[in-house]
Design a protein that fits this description.
The complex is a heterodimer.
Chain A (H helix, E strand, L loop, with lengths): L1 H8 L1 H33 L7 E5 L3 H9 L9 E2 H8 L4 E13 L2 E6 L2 H5 L1 E2 L3 E2 L2 E4 L7 E4 L1 H7 L6 E2 L2 E2 L14 E7 L9 E5 H7 L3 E2 L2 E2 L8 H5 L7 E2 L1 E6 L5 H9 L6 E4 L1 H44 L1 H9 L4 H42 L10 H32 L6
Parallel strand pairs in A: 4-12, 8-11
Antiparallel strand pairs in A: 1-16, 1-17, 2-15, 3-4, 3-10, 3-16, 5-6, 7-11, 8-12, 9-11, 13-14
Helix pairs in contact in A: 1-12, 2-10, 2-12, 10-12, 10-13, 11-13, 12-13
Chain B lengths: L8 E8 L8 E8 L4 E5 L6 H8 L7 E6 L2 E2 L5 H11 E4 L11 H6 L1 H4 L1 H5 L6 H11 L5 H5 L7 H13 L5 E5 L7 H18 L2 E6 L10 E4 H6 L6
Parallel strand pairs in B: 3-8, 3-9, 6-7, 7-8
Antiparallel strand pairs in B: 1-2, 1-4, 4-5
Helix pairs in contact in B: 8-9
The chains are: A alpha+beta, B alpha/beta.
The structure holds adenosine-5'-diphosphate (ADP) and magnesium ion.
Adenosine-5'-diphosphate (ADP) sits at the interface of chains B and A.
Chain lengths: 416, 236
């Protein structure tokens, strides 16, 4: 094939052009893969939970504080309402959530051992322990993988919980320190950044608190004294519900939303996650657009390279004309050149992208908790790549047309 | 399409000007008979190459006719004209005849990529074998030479490769545009004699153009472009 031989003859320029296209394609495909991974990771944050229930506020607000540990609840759910729903015959299990305290920038979540039993993420993965175990003592804490790594904690370490959510809180529950009883495996979800304690412990550390301040002097209740008290909370922040039969989910949701004794809101996590993703997804669409422009730059580089080669190749075209090549042969040859460059560039880009993704996979998982499965090329990916080649062919028409015009006006004798 | 009785080349009442320039060529009549070997001379810039472009059907005259082997190029469409050129004409230029990215034999076989007629006229049907035969007839038999990149050949060797290409598949007309101008005097004559011998063997019509008249004696006829332009009715 003449176009290929001609390209090989100009291999330095051709290789540079090809690399530019390859790198831009690798970037585009990489962004696309990360985007999918991010979306999946997002959707994978919580699974197996049929409903999340909190005080009536916005659907996104509830999702954000209960699952992503972002933002605050405006009101609580009373313990009696929680009990009423938890004991409903259609409800299989519940996970209570009590938020509001923090530990060195990480949120503290009060819950019970059902959390470790029933919480699921990324399809059907359950929470597993790297070391230690569930809550056994009142002052036991179970920490996520990020907490353990960033703060360098190990089993048996003593930690103090701070009152409130600020990163630099001045009020500490330092009279009731916790012991680290368990460290969780990395999940790639906000669980990794959470300090878990029991609901009773949350009650215990707040027994002698009121109006954001701890009581003074004799009114104080020591850690040991607290054990003897009734530690059933008056309220919790939210709770997750697993239904016995999935089909009952909507009925239950409606019942909770119409609950008379207290204004409650029940959301279906999948629906809320999708809504949230639509909001967050704008950023990654922007990233995709940037990547698309990089590809365009790569293709423009190719166009420039072919156009600049045209002048030195007028001789080549005249020789071809003299042996009977028609202008359309010249046209096709240049289009083919663009097509070859782009196709080779796209293939190299795909290889580069997969090479990098596989190389980065262990790091992404261990450091950032991003589970990235490069997978195969999806139909969408293939369409994207094909449209790059197609764009290159369209662009190739520019030099092809120029060469076509040249061959018509040059005749057979190019003065060199 | 090809009439065996008609002259190989017949130019009539031709007028040509490059776009935006004054009229360059005004030729009443110019004929080359079949098998005839004609030397066309004229100073540099007089329009010789332009005339060859018109004869080759790469340029189109504003007025007049160019008939090759009895076919009026003007009645052919652009594509048919290109095909006609590929089928019936061989070209040798002054220099840079070869595609740098093809090896010697692929350069020689190049016309068969575009012309089926020339492919079919090759005995045995193998363009590379025929190319090798032609090259050795033109004094290039060394296999090592055939394997080397074309830009490592000397100018004289390159011109022989170009001649082999122009002759491959036996086109009826060979057009040579100053093919010897880059050669030294002795090799000019050698080269020309070899090409002429091949032409004689196939009955190829040869139109040879040069500003240097020293080779004129080897031809059947010497024509001056100036005279063609001046005389209102030059008889063939
Ligand atoms: N491709 C071209 N475009 C415009 N003018 C040209 C072109 N080729 C040749 N000419 C003009 O035509 C004239 C004759 O050129 P040419 O036919 O090459 O002469 P010769 O071959 O006798 O030296 C010159 O004045 C030259 O400038
Ligand atoms: Mg000339």
């Amino acid at each position: 094939m003449l176009a290929l031989r001609s390209l090989r003859n100009r291999r330095t320029t051709a290789l540079l052009t090809l690399s530019a296209i390859a790198i831009s394609v690798a970037l585009l495909l990489g962004v696309q893969k990360m985007r999918t991974a991010a979306r999946d990771g997002f959707a994978n944050t919580v699974s197996g939970v049929d409903l999340i229930v909190g005080a009536r506020s916005g659907q996104l607000n509830l999702l954000l504080y209960s699952v992503f540990r972002v933002g605050d609840a405006t009101a609580n759910v009373s313990w009696s309402s929680y009990q009423k729903i938890a004991n409903h015959p259609d409800v299989a299990w519940t996970i209570p959530i009590s938020l509001g305290d923090s530990h060195r920038g990480f949120r503290v979540m009060g819950t019970n051992n059902d959390y470790f039993e029933h919480y699921r993420f990324a399809g059907d993965r359950s929470i597993r322990f790297t070391s230690g175990q569930r809550f056994a003592d009142l002052y036991d804490a179970v920490i996520g993988a990020d907490v353990a790594r960033q703060l360098g904690y190990k089993l048996g370490d003593k930690v103090v919980i701070s009152h409130g959510l600020g990163n630099v809180s001045f009020a500490h529950h330092d009279d009731k320190p916790f012991r680290i009883a368990g460290i969780l495996e990395r999940t790639g979800t906000p669980v990794d950044r959470t300090v878990h304690v029991s609901l009773e412990a949350i009650t215990a550390i707040h027994l002698d608190w009121g109006g954001g301040m701890q009581a003074q002097g004799d009114a104080r209740i020591s850690a040991e004294q607290a054990r003897a008290q009734n530690l059933t909370p008056e309220s919790i922040t939210a709770f997750m519900v697993g239904m016995r039969m999935k089909v009952m989910t909507f009925t239950m949701q409606r019942a909770i939303n119409e609950y008379r004794l207290e204004p409650l809101l029940a959301i279906i996590p999948g629906v809320a996650l999708t809504q949230l993703w639509n909001l967050v997804g704008i950023a990654d669409t922007a990233l995709m657009i940037v990547a698309a422009f990089v590809v365009l730059a790569g293709l423009l580089g190719m166009l420039t390279a072919i156009l600049t080669s045209l002048n030195e190749r007028r001789r080549e075209m005249a020789i071809l004309r003299s042996v009977g090549a028609q202008p359309r042969h010249v046209f096709t040859m240049l289009i083919a050149e663009a097509g070859l460059l782009a196709t080779a560039g796209v293939l190299a880009g795909v290889a580069l992208c997969y090479g990098l993704l596989y190389a980065a996979k262990p790091l992404l998982e261990s450091r950032f908790g991003i589970f990235l499965d490069p997978g195969g090329l999806t139909g969408y990916d293939v369409g994207l790549l094909a449209s790059i080649v197609f764009a290159a062919l369209l662009m190739g028409a520019v030099p092809a047309w120029r060469a076509y015009r040249n061959t018509l006006s040059d005749g057979l004798t190019i003065r060199v | 399409m090809v009439d065996p009785a008609s002259p190989a080349i017949e130019v009539e009442d031709l007028q040509y000007a490059w776009p935006g320039k004054p009229v360059l060529l005004r030729i009443n009549q110019f004929r080359v008979a079949r098998g005839e070997r004609v030397f066309l001379r004229g100073p540099s810039g007089s329009g010789k190459s332009t005339l060859l472009g018109l004869i080759g059907g790469v340029l189109t005259a504003q007025r007049g006719h160019v008939r090759l082997l009895g076919t009026d190029l003007a009645v052919l469409g652009a594509g048919a004209r290109d095909r006609f050129r590929g089928d019936h004409l061989g070209f040798i230029f002054q220099m840079f005849n070869l595609l740098p990215y093809l090896d010697v034999l692929d350069n020689v076989a190049l016309p068969t990529r575009f012309s089926r007629a020339r492919r079919e006229r090759i005995e045995g049907g193998d363009p590379r074998a025929e190319g090798r035969r032609l090259l050795s007839a033109l004094g290039l038999a060394d296999p090592a030479l055939l394997a080397s990149p074309v830009n490592e050949l000397s100018i004289g060797q390159q011109q022989r490769v170009a001649a082999a290409r122009a002759l491959l598949g036996s086109p009826e007309i060979l057009i040579a545009d100053e093919p010897t101008s880059a050669l030294d005097h002795d090799s000019r004559e050698d080269f020309l004699k070899l090409v002429m011998a091949e032409c004689a063997e196939r009955g190829t019509t040869l139109l040879f153009v040069s500003h240097d008249t020293s080779l004129g004696g080897l031809f059947d006829r010497v024509v001056s472009l100036d005279e063609l332009q001046r005389s209102p009715a030059e008889a063939a």
